[in-house]
Specification:
Elements: E1 17-21, E2 27-28, E3 46-50, E4 54-63, E5 81-88, E6 93-98, E7 113-123, E8 128-136, H1 140-146
Antiparallel strand pairs: 1-2, 1-3, 4-5, 4-7, 5-6, 7-8
């Protein structure tokens, strides 16, 4: 079950769920509601759209602090993790997300290709909760650095 309903799919090829203004065609993530956030548009109607599953790292950092909910610490100590701002070229936007388990800032480079994945966040008595993350594609760090 997604930790945040309506933000992403959990099917075989997960995707972020945004929406597109039917007036100006601007894409939003998270979804816009009530009115278009494009200051040049007065649109109020939106259609849901699946965003690109792949993008390029625009920026990245490590998180040395415990994040807010829906994050739940797995133990008494916080383990730092990497965050990536990923540019989705087709949508002309940057989406922030945690980097997949097993990858840190030493594995990342600006311009590196990443792909959206879904990983476990935590479980309770009723559900397993998952979140979206960005997973570096094999060999892409070296390619990003050399280009």
């Amino acid at each position: 079950m997604p930790a945040i309903e309506g933000w992403f799919t959990i099917d075989a090829e997960p995707a972020l769920l945004g929406n597109r203004c039917t007036t100006c065609r601007t894409v939003f993530f998270p979804k816009a509601s009530f009115f278009c956030r494009n200051p040049a548009c007065s649109g109020e109607q939106f259609e849901e759209t699946r965003l690109s599953r792949r993008g390029r790292i625009w920026s990245y950092t490590d998180a040395q602090y415990q994040p807010p909910p829906p994050y739940i610490a797995r133990g008494p100590e916080h383990t730092p993790f990497a965050l990536a701002a990923v540019e989705l070229a087709d949508e002309q936007m940057v989406v922030l997300g945690q980097v997949a388990e097993g990858y840190g800032v030493d594995d990342l480079a600006v311009g590196q290709q990443v792909e959206l994945v879904v990983e476990d966040l935590y479980s309770d008595d009723d559900h397993d909760y998952v979140v979206y993350k960005w997973k570096p594609l094999t060999g892409s760090r070296e390619e990003a650095i050399s280009s």
